[in-house]
Amino acid sequence: MKRLRRFVASVAVVVFLISAVSAQWDKKPYTEWSQQETEKILNNSPWGQTQALTDTSKMFDTGRRLDSGQSRVADVTQVNFRIRLLSAKPLRQAICRSMEIQQKGELPAQLAAQLRAFAAADFPDYIVITVTVESQNPSSEFQAATSVLGKITTAELKNDTYLLVKGGKKVFLKEYQSPRNDGLGARFIFPRLVEGKPFITADAESVLFYSELGQSLRVASKPIFLNMRYKTGDMMFQGKLEY
Questions:
Q1: Model-level pTM?
Q2: Domain spans of the chain?
Q3: Tens digits of per-residue pLDDT, 92-116?
Q4: Residue 60 CB coordination number (10 Å)
Protein backbone atom coordinates (compact mmCIF):
# COMPACT_ATOMS: atom_id res chain seq x y z
CA MET A 1 0.00 0.00 0.00
CA LYS A 2 2.92 2.37 0.70
CA ARG A 3 4.23 1.84 -2.81
CA LEU A 4 0.74 2.45 -4.18
CA ARG A 5 0.52 5.76 -2.32
CA ARG A 6 3.92 6.79 -3.68
CA PHE A 7 2.68 5.90 -7.15
CA VAL A 8 -0.43 8.07 -6.73
CA ALA A 9 1.67 10.96 -5.44
CA SER A 10 3.87 10.64 -8.52
CA VAL A 11 0.78 10.58 -10.73
CA ALA A 12 -0.17 14.01 -9.40
CA VAL A 13 3.23 15.35 -10.50
CA VAL A 14 2.89 13.81 -13.96
CA VAL A 15 -0.61 15.16 -14.48
CA PHE A 16 0.58 18.60 -13.46
CA LEU A 17 3.52 18.33 -15.84
CA ILE A 18 1.48 17.44 -18.86
CA SER A 19 -0.98 20.77 -17.43
CA ALA A 20 -5.16 0.94 -35.98
CA VAL A 21 -4.98 -1.94 -33.41
CA SER A 22 -7.66 -4.63 -33.66
CA ALA A 23 -6.66 -6.34 -30.42
CA GLN A 24 -8.99 -7.22 -27.60
CA TRP A 25 -7.79 -4.19 -25.64
CA ASP A 26 -9.88 -1.94 -27.88
CA LYS A 27 -12.97 -4.12 -27.58
CA LYS A 28 -13.72 -3.85 -23.89
CA PRO A 29 -13.14 -1.38 -21.02
CA TYR A 30 -9.69 -1.52 -19.49
CA THR A 31 -11.29 -2.34 -16.15
CA GLU A 32 -12.11 -5.74 -17.66
CA TRP A 33 -8.62 -6.52 -18.99
CA SER A 34 -6.97 -9.64 -17.63
CA GLN A 35 -3.49 -9.66 -16.13
CA GLN A 36 -2.21 -11.30 -19.30
CA GLU A 37 -3.70 -8.52 -21.43
CA THR A 38 -2.20 -5.78 -19.28
CA GLU A 39 1.24 -7.40 -19.34
CA LYS A 40 1.10 -7.63 -23.12
CA ILE A 41 0.35 -3.92 -23.42
CA LEU A 42 3.14 -3.08 -21.00
CA ASN A 43 5.82 -5.29 -22.55
CA ASN A 44 4.88 -6.26 -26.11
CA SER A 45 2.50 -3.85 -27.76
CA PRO A 46 2.44 -0.69 -29.91
CA TRP A 47 3.06 1.36 -26.72
CA GLY A 48 5.24 -0.86 -24.58
CA GLN A 49 8.16 -2.92 -25.81
CA THR A 50 11.15 -4.79 -24.44
CA GLN A 51 14.78 -4.42 -25.42
CA ALA A 52 16.57 -7.54 -24.20
CA LEU A 53 20.32 -7.47 -23.73
CA THR A 54 21.96 -10.86 -23.44
CA ASP A 55 25.51 -11.64 -22.37
CA THR A 56 26.65 -15.17 -23.27
CA SER A 57 30.36 -14.53 -22.78
CA LYS A 58 30.53 -16.53 -19.54
CA MET A 59 29.17 -19.61 -21.28
CA PHE A 60 32.55 -19.96 -22.96
CA ASP A 61 34.73 -19.45 -19.90
CA THR A 62 37.55 -21.91 -20.50
CA GLY A 63 38.64 -21.52 -16.90
CA ARG A 64 35.77 -23.70 -15.76
CA ARG A 65 36.00 -27.45 -15.86
CA LEU A 66 33.92 -28.88 -18.64
CA ASP A 67 32.97 -31.84 -16.48
CA SER A 68 31.60 -29.71 -13.64
CA GLY A 69 28.06 -30.72 -14.52
CA GLN A 70 26.80 -27.15 -14.10
CA SER A 71 24.45 -25.95 -16.83
CA ARG A 72 25.87 -23.34 -19.18
CA VAL A 73 22.40 -21.82 -19.40
CA ALA A 74 22.91 -20.48 -15.90
CA ASP A 75 25.84 -18.45 -17.23
CA VAL A 76 23.64 -16.48 -19.65
CA THR A 77 22.82 -13.01 -18.35
CA GLN A 78 19.76 -11.21 -19.69
CA VAL A 79 18.67 -7.70 -18.79
CA ASN A 80 15.29 -6.47 -20.01
CA PHE A 81 14.70 -2.78 -20.61
CA ARG A 82 10.95 -2.10 -20.60
CA ILE A 83 10.54 0.95 -22.84
CA ARG A 84 7.03 2.40 -22.58
CA LEU A 85 5.07 5.36 -23.90
CA LEU A 86 3.65 6.58 -20.61
CA SER A 87 1.86 9.43 -22.36
CA ALA A 88 -0.20 6.89 -24.35
CA LYS A 89 -3.57 6.30 -22.71
CA PRO A 90 -3.72 2.49 -23.17
CA LEU A 91 -0.32 2.15 -21.51
CA ARG A 92 -1.48 4.09 -18.46
CA GLN A 93 -4.71 2.13 -18.39
CA ALA A 94 -2.70 -1.08 -18.34
CA ILE A 95 -0.63 0.22 -15.41
CA CYS A 96 -3.75 1.10 -13.46
CA ARG A 97 -5.50 -2.17 -14.29
CA SER A 98 -2.45 -4.18 -13.25
CA MET A 99 -2.41 -2.41 -9.88
CA GLU A 100 -6.12 -3.07 -9.43
CA ILE A 101 -5.58 -6.76 -10.11
CA GLN A 102 -2.67 -6.91 -7.67
CA GLN A 103 -4.80 -5.28 -4.98
CA LYS A 104 -7.72 -7.59 -5.86
CA GLY A 105 -9.99 -4.60 -6.28
CA GLU A 106 -9.60 -3.57 -2.64
CA LEU A 107 -8.56 0.03 -3.22
CA PRO A 108 -9.63 2.98 -1.05
CA ALA A 109 -12.11 5.14 -2.92
CA GLN A 110 -9.76 8.13 -3.09
CA LEU A 111 -6.89 6.09 -4.52
CA ALA A 112 -9.18 4.41 -7.02
CA ALA A 113 -10.39 7.82 -8.20
CA GLN A 114 -6.84 9.07 -8.59
CA LEU A 115 -5.92 6.01 -10.65
CA ARG A 116 -8.91 6.58 -12.92
CA ALA A 117 -7.84 10.21 -13.38
CA PHE A 118 -4.32 9.10 -14.28
CA ALA A 119 -5.65 6.59 -16.80
CA ALA A 120 -7.85 9.22 -18.46
CA ALA A 121 -5.46 12.19 -18.43
CA ASP A 122 -4.34 13.89 -21.64
CA PHE A 123 -0.74 14.81 -22.44
CA PRO A 124 -1.14 17.92 -24.64
CA ASP A 125 2.42 19.22 -24.33
CA TYR A 126 4.78 16.30 -23.82
CA ILE A 127 5.66 12.81 -24.99
CA VAL A 128 6.86 10.77 -22.02
CA ILE A 129 8.79 7.54 -22.39
CA THR A 130 9.62 5.51 -19.30
CA VAL A 131 12.36 2.91 -18.92
CA THR A 132 12.54 0.23 -16.26
CA VAL A 133 15.12 -2.53 -15.87
CA GLU A 134 14.30 -6.14 -15.02
CA SER A 135 16.40 -9.28 -14.64
CA GLN A 136 15.87 -12.69 -13.11
CA ASN A 137 19.35 -12.53 -11.60
CA PRO A 138 21.00 -9.62 -9.75
CA SER A 139 23.85 -9.57 -12.24
CA SER A 140 26.51 -6.90 -12.50
CA GLU A 141 24.91 -5.79 -15.77
CA PHE A 142 21.55 -5.32 -14.05
CA GLN A 143 23.15 -3.39 -11.21
CA ALA A 144 25.07 -1.21 -13.67
CA ALA A 145 21.91 -0.41 -15.64
CA THR A 146 20.00 0.46 -12.48
CA SER A 147 22.85 2.66 -11.26
CA VAL A 148 23.15 4.53 -14.55
CA LEU A 149 19.43 5.29 -14.71
CA GLY A 150 19.60 6.60 -11.17
CA LYS A 151 22.62 8.86 -11.67
CA ILE A 152 22.62 10.11 -15.25
CA THR A 153 21.37 13.65 -15.90
CA THR A 154 19.55 15.62 -18.57
CA ALA A 155 22.78 17.42 -19.48
CA GLU A 156 24.54 14.11 -20.14
CA LEU A 157 21.70 12.76 -22.26
CA LYS A 158 20.25 15.68 -24.16
CA ASN A 159 22.62 15.61 -27.14
CA ASP A 160 22.31 11.86 -27.76
CA THR A 161 18.68 11.15 -26.84
CA TYR A 162 15.95 11.85 -29.36
CA LEU A 163 12.82 10.76 -31.22
CA LEU A 164 13.17 10.23 -34.96
CA VAL A 165 10.41 10.12 -37.58
CA LYS A 166 10.24 9.71 -41.36
CA GLY A 167 12.36 12.16 -43.29
CA GLY A 168 15.06 12.26 -40.62
CA LYS A 169 13.23 14.73 -38.42
CA LYS A 170 14.37 14.64 -34.81
CA VAL A 171 13.21 16.11 -31.54
CA PHE A 172 15.75 16.01 -28.74
CA LEU A 173 15.24 15.29 -25.07
CA LYS A 174 13.77 18.14 -23.04
CA GLU A 175 14.16 16.63 -19.58
CA TYR A 176 15.28 13.42 -17.93
CA GLN A 177 13.91 12.32 -14.55
CA SER A 178 15.55 9.45 -12.68
CA PRO A 179 13.39 6.61 -11.29
CA ARG A 180 11.27 7.25 -8.21
CA ASN A 181 9.72 4.82 -5.75
CA ASP A 182 6.55 4.43 -7.80
CA GLY A 183 7.60 1.63 -10.14
CA LEU A 184 7.15 3.70 -13.31
CA GLY A 185 10.86 3.94 -14.04
CA ALA A 186 13.01 6.69 -15.49
CA ARG A 187 11.23 9.41 -17.50
CA PHE A 188 12.45 10.70 -20.84
CA ILE A 189 10.39 13.79 -21.68
CA PHE A 190 10.11 15.27 -25.18
CA PRO A 191 8.05 18.15 -26.61
CA ARG A 192 4.85 16.98 -28.27
CA LEU A 193 4.65 20.02 -30.53
CA VAL A 194 7.41 21.26 -32.85
CA GLU A 195 6.84 24.61 -34.52
CA GLY A 196 3.27 24.47 -33.30
CA LYS A 197 2.51 21.09 -34.91
CA PRO A 198 2.44 17.52 -33.51
CA PHE A 199 5.83 15.92 -33.99
CA ILE A 200 4.30 12.46 -34.41
CA THR A 201 1.49 11.97 -36.92
CA ALA A 202 -0.20 8.95 -38.45
CA ASP A 203 1.69 9.36 -41.74
CA ALA A 204 5.05 9.21 -39.95
CA GLU A 205 4.91 5.40 -40.32
CA SER A 206 7.09 4.91 -37.26
CA VAL A 207 8.89 6.72 -34.48
CA LEU A 208 12.29 5.72 -33.16
CA PHE A 209 13.38 6.31 -29.56
CA TYR A 210 17.15 6.41 -29.22
CA SER A 211 19.33 7.12 -26.21
CA GLU A 212 22.99 6.65 -25.38
CA LEU A 213 23.19 5.91 -21.68
CA GLY A 214 26.90 6.56 -21.41
CA GLN A 215 30.06 4.50 -21.58
CA SER A 216 29.56 3.25 -18.01
CA LEU A 217 26.70 0.95 -19.04
CA ARG A 218 28.09 -2.11 -20.79
CA VAL A 219 27.24 -5.75 -21.43
CA ALA A 220 30.12 -8.01 -22.44
CA SER A 221 32.32 -4.88 -22.55
CA LYS A 222 30.08 -3.22 -25.15
CA PRO A 223 28.34 0.13 -24.53
CA ILE A 224 24.55 -0.05 -24.46
CA PHE A 225 22.18 2.13 -26.44
CA LEU A 226 18.41 2.17 -26.11
CA ASN A 227 16.97 1.79 -29.58
CA MET A 228 13.23 1.12 -29.93
CA ARG A 229 10.88 1.70 -32.85
CA TYR A 230 7.10 2.11 -32.61
CA LYS A 231 4.82 1.78 -35.65
CA THR A 232 2.30 4.61 -35.79
CA GLY A 233 -0.09 2.51 -37.85
CA ASP A 234 -0.53 0.23 -34.83
CA MET A 235 -0.91 3.03 -32.28
CA MET A 236 -4.58 3.79 -32.96
CA PHE A 237 -6.74 3.32 -29.89
CA GLN A 238 -10.45 4.14 -29.71
CA GLY A 239 -10.17 6.07 -32.94
CA LYS A 240 -7.17 8.18 -31.89
CA LEU A 241 -3.43 8.02 -32.45
CA GLU A 242 -2.13 7.40 -28.93
CA TYR A 243 1.42 8.21 -27.92
A1: 0.82
A2: 2-50+73-241
A3: 999 999 988 988 867 788 888 988 9
A4: 9
